[in-house]
Design a protein that fits this description.
Strand order of the largest sheet: 3-2-1-4-5-6
CATH topology of one domain: Rossmann fold
Oligomer: single chain
Number of helices: 10
Structural class: alpha/beta
CATH superfamily of one domain: von Willebrand factor, type A domain
CATH architecture of one domain: 3-Layer(aba) Sandwich
Helix content: 40-55%
Largest sheet: 6 strands, mixed
């Protein structure tokens, strides 16, 4: 019987150690992503906190999210899906370098997890004041979505804002990149009916902000923009948006 060479065992041990090193080198983030449960929708709530939104309006945005995620219709849509759960993240944006993931990916599968998510949103301090870089916000939201293994789930960026993009990445370029990646972008255009003079062109562009959103921001399968004329109706508009996004219902303007 042939004997192994003196160096064969050390080589074998080295190969085993190399294989072990490769296994241990798998990034923790990738492993964490692989462990995420399968969901029906991966949704990024991308919220405008630019300087045209004052603190009372910012609070009403948050109150609107809380009202929407506690609505029985929204909870029924979430639990009625094939996987009976969605993944939601909450981001805030203002200027080009002012985009922040406030609440990372959170599984919502009923009233308790929905309430915990909206409480975390409500308790978080405001991230920024600045200009309005919607394109930069979309690119960061795309990065966040790329970290979640959607496994065929719908990927949606839900933008709420009160003005046009005036800083950061070109809005239509960012939008087109998101659409090419299979992401749907929906919009909630919050109309300021009494703007101060220096923000007029920003919050009331020619043709109106909602049409500007339709032309420059939204896109993808079933995409839509809703119009809100005061922050007190933000919650009901969010309900309509979430029902469409979660349950893939027809355009809520219909």
């Amino acid at each position: 019987m042939a004997s192994s060479s003196p160096s064969s065992k050390p080589r074998g041990r080295a190969a085993a150690l190399a294989a072990l090193a490769l296994t241990l080198a798998i990034p923790a983030a990738a492993q964490a992503a692989a462990d995420q449960p399968t969901v029906d929708v991966a949704l990024v709530l991308l919220t405008d906190v630019s300087r045209s939104i004052d603190d009372s309006e910012f609070k009403l945005e948050k109150d609107g999210y809380a009202a929407a995620f506690s609505d029985p219709r929204v909870l029924a849509a979430i639990t009625g899906g094939p996987n009976a759960r969605i993944a939601v993240a909450y981001m805030e944006f203002a200027g080009e370098t002012q985009v922040h993931t406030v609440i990372d990916w959170t599984i919502i599968d009923g009233a308790d997890t929905a309430a915990a998510f909206t409480k975390a949103v409500a308790d978080a301090p405001r991230s920024f004041y600045g200009r309005t870089a919607i394109g930069s916000g979309i690119l960061q939201a795309m990065n966040l979505l790329s970290e979640y293994p959607t496994n065929g789930a719908r990927a949606v960026i839900d933008i709420a804002g009160d003005g046009t993009s005036n800083a950061g990445a070109p809005i239509t370029t960012a939008r087109d990149q998101a659409l090419a990646a299979g992401i749907t972008i929906n919009g909630l255009a919050i109309i300021n009916d009494h703007p101060v003079s220096y923000t007029f062109a920003h919050v009331q562009p020619p043709g109106g902000l909602t049409n500007w959103y339709r032309d420059n921001v939204i896109g993808g399968s079933g995409s839509f923009a809703l119009e809100v004329h005061d922050f007190h109706t933000f919650g009901e508009a969010m309900v309509r948006k979430l029902l469409s996004e979660i349950a893939a219902l027809p355009d809520p303007r219909g």
